[in-house]
Design goal:
Elements lengths: L1 H13 L15 H25 L6 H23 L9 H4 L5 H12 L19 H26 L6 H28 L3 H17 L145
């Protein structure tokens, strides 16, 4: 059973029936498939009624909204399974829609009341509003939803595409919805368990509900003609290696080596003597080319500086000579004036040849 549940979890978390091994396996019989689908319809309809009844009495707002949405989703699941029931003579849909076992029926009754599963007063004495949010979430998220997913996944592994294609489609849709609801319930439950007393109440309620489903794969037992599918590994497991024994090796026989056969060289007529190679003189190392001297800088002639222009000639003013009497020194003799060389007559006398005034 542990292997079956492990395989069911692998299929459900894989998101489809890609891990199913259809080769060499026949599908379910029509009677067995109709019985499973009828039980699925009954469980989904009970969840629709249970969660819908919790909406009016739930004090936690988040849980109340969750119950409202999930109750409608379970109603849709019940309609899906009703459409998959065979419509043939001898098959009554209402008769097929029944509880799998009496223990599963009692499990859903305790879940609906939200009461402790260890209450022995019976369904008539227990209060319909007993318990609280913790017991409701613990029964739904840790018992019912995980077992629904496991049972649906086991059926999905056993179904074949040839004869069970409509059922496979419904199983894939329902498994996806149940996994999402399971995650939501678990998150809310962990946020509400805050005291050791809360943990003890949740654990005791879960254990008591699980006791009612012992020995059942999921929540629906398989009929006597069919057994729950055995676990089939998705990956081929290699067989254990068998130690190999090396065959005996015959002793090697020494074989004498075969002498080589001499090969006579073919005679060449009039061989032409080949002159010995002449050693070529080694090339002299090339002399290093003298480095070109750096070019001398070309003197750049400075522009000629223009000579300063000579000032224009200045005409000297005419010299006016005035006859002054000779200066005599006391006790000296006046010098005799030199005769005049110019024809200018003395003052008051006309020049020769000039008209008299």
């Amino acid at each position: 059973m542990t292997a079956d549940l492990f395989d069911a979890l692998s299929i459900s978390m894989g998101g489809g029936h890609g891990l199913r091994a259809d080769a060499g396996r026949s599908g379910l019989r029509l009677e067995d498939s109709a019985g499973l689908v009828g039980h699925y319809r009954w469980m989904e309809h009970r969840l629709f009624e249970t969660l819908g009844g919790w909406v009016t009495t739930e004090p936690v707002t988040e849980a109340r909204l969750f119950y409202d949405v999930q109750s409608q989703q379970h109603q849709w699941h019940a309609a899906l399974w009703e459409e998959r029931l065979p419509v043939l003579d001898g098959f009554d849909p209402e008769q097929l829609t029944a509880a799998p076992t009496s223990e599963i029926d009692r499990l859903f009754s305790l879940l609906a009341r939200g009461a402790s599963a260890v209450d022995d007063r019976g369904p008539d004495l227990a209060s319909p509003h007993a318990g609280g949010t913790l017991l409701r979430l613990a029964g739904l998220g840790r018992v019912v939803l995980p077992r629904l997913i496991a049972g649906y996944s086991l059926h999905l592994q056993r179904a074949t595409d040839v004869s069970d294609a409509p059922v496979i489609r419904a199983l894939e849709l329902v498994i996806r919805d149940e996994i999402q609801a399971w995650r939501t319930v678990e998150a809310m439950l962990q946020s509400l368990v805050r005291r050791p007393h809360d943990l003890a109440v949740v654990t005791a309620h879960q254990q008591a509900l699980e006791t009612l489903a012992l020995g059942v794969p999921g929540l629906v037992p398989w009929s006597a003609g069919e057994t729950a599918p055995a676990w089939t590994p998705a990956v081929a497991v290699p067989a254990p290696a068998t130690p190999s024994v090396a065959p005996p090796v015959a002793p090697a026989v020494a074989v004498p080596p075969t002498p080589p056969v001499p090969v006579e060289a073919e005679a060449v007529p009039n061989p032409v003597p080949i002159p010995p190679p002449v050693a070529e003189p080694a090339p002299e190392p090339a002399a290093a080319a003298p480095s070109d001297p750096a070019p001398a800088p070309v003197p750049v002639a400075a522009p000629p500086t223009p000579a300063p222009a000579a000032p224009p000639p200045t005409s000297a003013p005419p010299t006016i000579r005035i006859n002054q009497p000779p200066t005599t020194t006391r006790g000296s003799r006046p010098a005799t004036p030199a005769p005049r060389s110019d024809p200018t007559p003395p003052w008051g006398q006309p020049a020769a040849g000039s008209p008299a005034h």
